[in-house]
Specification:
Blueprint (H helix, E strand, L loop, with lengths): L1 H16 L1 H4 L30 E5 L3 E2 L21 H12 L2 E4 L4 H21 L16 E23 L2 E20 L5 E23 L5 E11 L2 H23 L7 H20 L1 E2 L3 E2 L7 E13 L5 E2 L1 E11 L5 E14 L3 E15 L6 E13 L9 E15 L2 E12 L15 E13 L13
Parallel strand pairs: 1-3, 1-4, 2-4
Antiparallel strand pairs: 4-5, 5-6, 6-7, 8-9, 10-12, 10-18, 11-13, 12-13, 13-14, 14-15, 15-16, 16-17, 17-18
Helix pairs in contact: 3-5, 5-6
Length: 465
């Protein structure tokens, strides 16, 4: 019965982690429907142009030449849609800032106009009329839009996790691709590039599975499997990236005075303010959507609770609780800091030794990922410890080193777990000199860091940090 309960737990976890896809599995053919909308929200949804700008798009296509990635064999299917021009024209129309005109298939348009002109001429001739076969002129574009999909990077990050115990197991896998597009506006009168923007978008694929493989008895085998795989449509990713590029083209054009907007300077200032916030956020976001931000300020007050275990000349060590308070000061170089602290703790060996101690420590530390909200850290230093309750008297010198992981759920607040080893320079802390090793003790604990002070400088992303 226990094995069925285990499989039930795995299945419930599977459904909860991907319930939207798992509970809506397709069993019937679907009907044609209006195309899906992207989830993009924009400040331009509430801002209207003074006049629509006529633009032409000759070509906006896949410039990567990349084919779909397959596990076995080969394929001639492209990784990126070849209909980028159609998607861009739709985005321009939806923006309500541009009036796109047909240029991709201009040959078809000219042929059709020639047919109309010839037909009118024949009709006028048969009717003995002196009518001209004139047609209204084609609109011309003051601006043409160029660019395309310049890269499609497959498997920029892959991973997963899984576990199996006595034939009951589950696994989760993911893969992320990345698409990059460039879009530029070119003046048809001078050929000058008025604006050039760059946008990237990730494409996520996920797979989750659970299974049970068990012999019910000697001759009967029970095998159960379930799972779901979810792939973000590449076409929607391209559409969202192009939508964002069009939005960025409009916003930067408003700021530079290329496009005029209703509302005057007040609207321009609002757009500029929102753009600067988004630009600063983009500059502090590295690859893999890592948000790089100095959340720690210039200094911190630290409070810790720890389990302290002696490693001395006696056996049967007993875990005791200790507390520590410290002040941490950061250098200008990111991650490096100096830590000044004081601790109170007990050490005990069963039926042999028990005493209370005070210590002061000074450490030099380094946060390995100083701009991430989850960062490993290491530190080392020296100090002094005393079994007297008078703080100004410390009779044993020591050095210590340790490390851990800190998590910042919000700015200026860190939660950390750590392990620390303390090695004394004497062997009489437990009042017994024996063996060739000095006395020592180690700590495993949990702490809080309260940060204050402004950071030294703003953070800009580093692509492969």
């Amino acid at each position: 019965m226990r094995k069925y309960f285990q499989f039930f737990i795995w299945t419930v976890l599977l459904i909860l982690t991907s319930c939207g896809t798992y509970l809506n599995q397709p069993f019937n053919t679907g009907k044609a429907r209006i195309g899906e909308s992207t989830s993009r929200k924009s400040i331009l949804d509430t801002i209207m142009p003074l006049n629509e700008t006529i633009v032409g798009v000759y070509k906006f296509r896949d410039q990567t030449g990349q084919y779909k990635l397959v596990e076995n064999g080969s394929t001639f299917s492209t990784a990126v849609t070849q209909g980028g021009t159609s998607i861009l024209l739709k985005s321009l129309e939806e923006s309500k800032w541009f009036q796109p005109i047909e240029r991709e298939n201009i040959g078809n348009l000219l042929n059709e106009r020639q047919i109309i002109r010839s037909t009118r001429q024949e009709y006028a001739k048969d009717a003995n009329q002196n009518q001209t076969a004139s047609m209204p002129p084609l609109l011309f574009a003051g601006i043409i839009l160029e660019g395309g999909v310049v890269s499609y990077d497959s498997n920029i990050i892959t991973g997963g996790s899984g576990a199996r115990y006595f034939g009951v197991g589950g696994a989760a896998e993911y893969r992320e691709d990345r698409i990059t597009i460039y879009l530029r506006a070119v003046s048809t009168s001078s050929g000058r590039i008025l604006k050039n923007v760059y946008v990237s978008k990730t494409i996520l694929s996920q797979g989750i599975s659970a299974n049970l493989f068990r012999y019910v008895n000697v001759k009967r085998l029970l095998e159960v499997e379930t799972g779901v795989t979810k792939n973000e449509p590449a076409q929607l990713a391209v559409k969202e990236a192009i939508d964002k590029a069009v939005e960025l083209l409009i916003v930067e054009g408003i700021i530079d005075g290329l496009w005029q907007t209703k509302g005057g300077d007040a609207t321009v200032n609002l757009v500029k303010e929102q753009y600067l916030i988004e630009k600063e956020e983009a500059e502090s976001t590295a690859l893999y959507d890592r948000k790089l931000e100095d959340r720690r300020g210039k200094a911190a007050v630290n409070i810790e609770g720890a389990m302290v275990v002696p490693n001395n000349d006696y056996g049967d060590a007993i875990e005791k609780l200790g507390v520590n308070a410290s002040l941490k000061l950061y250098f200008k170089k990111p991650g490096f800091n100096i830590n000044l602290g004081a601790s109170y703790f007990e050490l005990e060996n069963k039926n042999n030794f028990k005493d209370q101690f005070l210590s002061i420590d000074i450490n030099v530390g380094y946060d390995i990922l100083p701009y991430d909200n989850i960062s490993p850290f290491v530190y080392a230093g020296f100090g002094a410890v005393s079994n007297n309750k008078v703080i100004n008297y410390f009779d044993s010198l020591k050095f210590q080193f340790g490390g851990g992981i800190e998590y910042l759920p919000k700015k200026n607040l860190g939660i950390k777990i750590f392990a620390e080893q303390n090695i004394l320079l004497t062997d009489d802390m437990d009042r017994l000199v024996q063996g060739k090793w000095n006395d020592a003790y180690y700590k495993i604990g949990l702490g809080l860091n309260f940060y204050f002070g402004k950071p030294y400088e703003k953070v800009k992303s580093v692509m492969f940090e």
